[in-house]
């Protein structure tokens, strides 16, 4: 969602749909990775302490999104 908003703000693509297919694949990849992360954390750590599992899951999701946006960024930032 963040990457799509950045591309839309900078008018990347034709009618905002040129990068839609790439975003579908990236979104699917992020969904799979986060589902595995949350499943492992809540399934294993959640048995003993659910609050720690939820905090770890949230922190892990933030790190995943941060890495994802950092890998697909424009080298000089999003200056349109």
Low-confidence stretches: none
Oligomeric state as shown: single chain
Which range best describes the helical content: under 10%, 10-25%, 25-40%, 40-55%, 55-70% or over 70%?
Answer: 55-70%
Mean pLDDT: 77
Structural domains: how many: 1
CA radius of gyration is: 16 Å
Principal-axes shape call = elongated
What report would you give on this structure?
By secondary structure, this protein is mainly α. It has one domain (2-71). The chain is built from three helices and no strands. Helix 2 (20-44) packs antiparallel against helix 3 (50-71). The longest helix has 25 residues, at 20-44. It is elongated, with a radius of gyration of 16 Å. This is Major facilitator superfamily (MFS) profile domain-containing protein.
Any key phrases for this structure?
single chain; 80 residues; mainly alpha; 69% helix; 0% strand
